[in-house]
């Protein structure tokens, strides 16, 4: 059956329908006078209705000077419209049954215009066979796949690679601790490829917590990418790769904030073009490739983060954490959906933050922002402990030593308990949530609970 997309268009100023002539009819045969024009074009006539059947005898050509006879059941050309062809009151003409039948599929898909929908539904009240067919088509539409977003799933690449590697493992696989960085950079790259020029200039708010209060800074999507490029450069130089800042790089002991500000000064305070997209993506590919080819011991290399140092395996997790959160900042600014990490990757990111908490608590005490230790113990011995329970994807249980980074957390020495959702905990660690407003369930020593929540927020930085 020919669908509506195959119907012929007709000139609204000429007669309807136009005269095509039949087999053997000489060109220029006079058409009949115009008849009443239906509301929409009728489907093109099929061979069964208007032409010889395949393999059958040829229909004789009409005599010269005579127009083609009208098809059976319809009025001859020039005949006045039948009284039933128009609705009472001079409304639009009714559609032929075959036209209404051909619209049932489009009606079932809700693809008809308002006028077509009204005509079909009025017809269904009077025609039992069409009503049955319409119900069958509506039921069939329910079996079709629901409409999906035209945007590719950000996790599609990871799933395809996982399937490929499951069939044929990579000769040189990506280290497990680099997999979250690989996945999050791929998701951010997909987001950036979808952005137009105006979105690169959209204002983006970077947020963090300085130990006492939330802080923010306005930049652009391009500025956020410059920040990621600059901080990833710390990992690049630890692996012996070129520093992306080049001559603009500050001193060797400069931390992430100083490096970011140096790059922004070199490019202009708020870069507004996608020029940094390609250098950042090439650097992320190079980091993953270099870590994969370097061998097992490379994870223990030291990466300086200003006054703090991290082993390379933790530095890759830190960069995955930053990439995910800043991709969320960009997605929020341009109203684009962005999913969180896979459950096993989220667990690795939570584990990194939990392992850094004793050191963060000690730093808060040095600045007078946390209570002094209550019970010092020998290094490696169990001491006062907070039980950190992370719920949902990536969840688990961690025991945080409260009085010294050298002490060991122990379930038997637990004095307080905090329960948080995994993504909520990461948002707190990013400084996107004020500690006093975190949706945390808690029990035990209030002072210990407050100090750990503030220490978690203090892990954030520019």
TrEMBL record:
Residues 1-11 have a biased composition (Acidic residues). It holds the Pfam family zf-HC2. Residues 15-36, 54-63 have a biased composition (Pro residues). Transmembrane segments: none annotated. Residues 37-48 have a biased composition (Low complexity). Keywords: Transcription, Transcription regulation. Residues 101-131 form the Putative zinc-finger domain. InterPro entries: Anti_sigma_zinc_sf (IPR041916), DinB/YfiT-like (IPR034660), Znf_put (IPR027383). Residues 1-96 are annotated as: Disordered. This is Zf-HC2 domain-containing protein. It comes from Streptomyces ramulosus.
